[in-house]
């Protein structure tokens, strides 16, 4: 497929890439109706790119059946209102099966989670992603990069084999490394998505990113939209005003090695009456004394 065939997918990545939470019912199962309601809230808030089975969706705590369900609900609820970037991962056959399932449903893209393996070689990283991308040549493929050792040349090598590798979710917390990586891989060749959300978006946009992922968007779609609009217009002072607004919320999420990354988002949603606060191990709900601060932040955004 030529690059032209992926123009709509590329445009969808150069935006707020929402990572929906996966709400759980009292019995611990996926709460389907609540999930649909949360998706509608995102869509009504102007969000047009959704990533079911992302980390904010507790990808690694879901069963294979639940991951399929989440993808199905997302595609069905979004219809033609949003592009779907389905998260896939684990071993190669599992990732390939998930990608083919997403393709059958009508998703346009897959995001490949960082390989979970204690021994990841750079050449093996290429092999892993190549096996997945070649299985679904019609879909745009977006590697999720969290490995600071990976070089831009390896990404370029992957794309030489697989022209459907069209974007990158870059989540190494180092703006200088990102700038170098993007230029080594090909700045114009890929859509660069700041994979560490709003806190890193201004610095990564200054280095070439044109989209960012967001978990915060579940709580306050308008806040994330304000950030992307400021960055698109090159108004960094305005973007930093949004950054100041979301700083404490994101600090709470990032604390203790991001232990409460999903927990804080669900707590904020619970404070607004939008879903239950429960998360699955190895995540855990917030202590009572921390809940009030999260609720106060969320209440301030909803005014």
Automatic annotation (TrEMBL):
The keyword Lyase applies. Pfam families: DHDPS. Keywords: Lyase. CDD domains: DHDPS-like. Belongs to the DapA family. This is Dihydrodipicolinate synthase family protein. It comes from Streptomyces djakartensis.
């Amino acid at each position: 497929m030529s690059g032209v065939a992926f123009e709509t997918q590329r445009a969808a990545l150069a935006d707020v890439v929402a990572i929906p939470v996966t709400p759980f019912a009292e019995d611990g199962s996926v709460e389907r109706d609540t999930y649909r309601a949360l998706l509608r809230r995102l869509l009504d808030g102007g969000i047009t790119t959704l990533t079911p089975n992302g980390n904010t969706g507790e990808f690694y705590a879901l069963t294979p059946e639940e991951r399929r369900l989440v993808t199905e609900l997302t595609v069905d609820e979004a219809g033609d209102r949003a592009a779907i970037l389905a998260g896939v991962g684990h071993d190669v056959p599992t990732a390939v099966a998930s990608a083919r399932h997403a393709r059958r449903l009508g998703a346009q893209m897959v995001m490949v989670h960082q390989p979970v393996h204690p021994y990841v070689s750079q050449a093996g990283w290429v092999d892993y992603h190549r096996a997945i991308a070649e299985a679904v040549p019609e879909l745009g493929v977006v590697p999720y990069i969290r490995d600071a050792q990976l070089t831009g040349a390896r990404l370029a090598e992957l794309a030489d084999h697989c022209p459907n590798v069209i974007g990158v979710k870059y989540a190494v917390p180092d703006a200088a490394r990102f700038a170098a990586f993007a230029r080594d891989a090909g700045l114009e060749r890929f859509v660069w998505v700041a994979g560490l959300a709003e806190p890193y978006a201004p610095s990564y946009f200054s280095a070439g990113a044109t989209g960012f992922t967001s978990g915060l968007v579940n709580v306050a779609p308008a806040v994330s939209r304000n950030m992307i609009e400021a960055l698109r217009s090159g108004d960094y002072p305005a973007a930093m005003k949004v950054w100041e607004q979301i700083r404490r919320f994101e600090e709470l999420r990032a604390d203790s090695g991001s232990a409460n990354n999903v927990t804080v988002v669900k707590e904020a949603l619970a404070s607004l009456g939008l879903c239950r606060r429960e998360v699955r191990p190895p995540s855990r709900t917030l202590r009572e004394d921390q809940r009030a601060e999260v609720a106060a932040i969320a209440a301030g955004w909803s005014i």
